[in-house]
Design brief:
124 residues, mainly alpha, single chain, extended, disordered C terminus
């Protein structure tokens, strides 16, 4: 949350039927504070297209390669929705979240695919 209390309040009021109520806004501003530079905060982006320019610059990707990257993300995300829902239904959210750090290592155990090499190699 970055912005003044007034700005954030205006944004929240403008969102009709939003899941986040305006009422706890004051307690959030009283409790939360921006990290200092020595804390090295992590910025989590919720939209891939926001990070596209940084990805292109950092890895030297062309528009076509960036399209392949985003397409790969989309299709893997879309195809895993149903199996993930079934796993959550069977084992519960708490159990699945507790095992998530370990299950993330499983895909790294297989050989890389040709599609993965498009974004994993850095240009000289």
């Amino acid at each position: 949350m970055k912005g003044s209390r007034e700005l954030i309040h205006q944004r929240m009021v403008a969102r009709h039927e939003h899941f986040m109520p305006v009422a706890p806004l004051d307690s959030r501003f009283a409790t939360l504070e921006e990290p200092t530079p020595d804390e090295r905060p992590i910025i989590v982006r919720i939209n891939l297209s926001v990070g596209a320019p940084q990805l292109q610059q950092e890895f030297g990707l062309t528009d076509g390669e960036l399209g392949w990257l985003f397409s790969g993300f989309f299709w893997s995300y879309a195809l895993l929705q149903i199996p993930t829902g079934m796993i959550l239904d069977r084992f519960g959210v708490t159990s699945v979240y507790r095992s998530a750090p370990f299950s993330g290592r499983l895909p790294r155990a297989r050989p890389p695919s040709p599609a993965g090499s498009v974004v994993s190699s850095r240009r000289a």
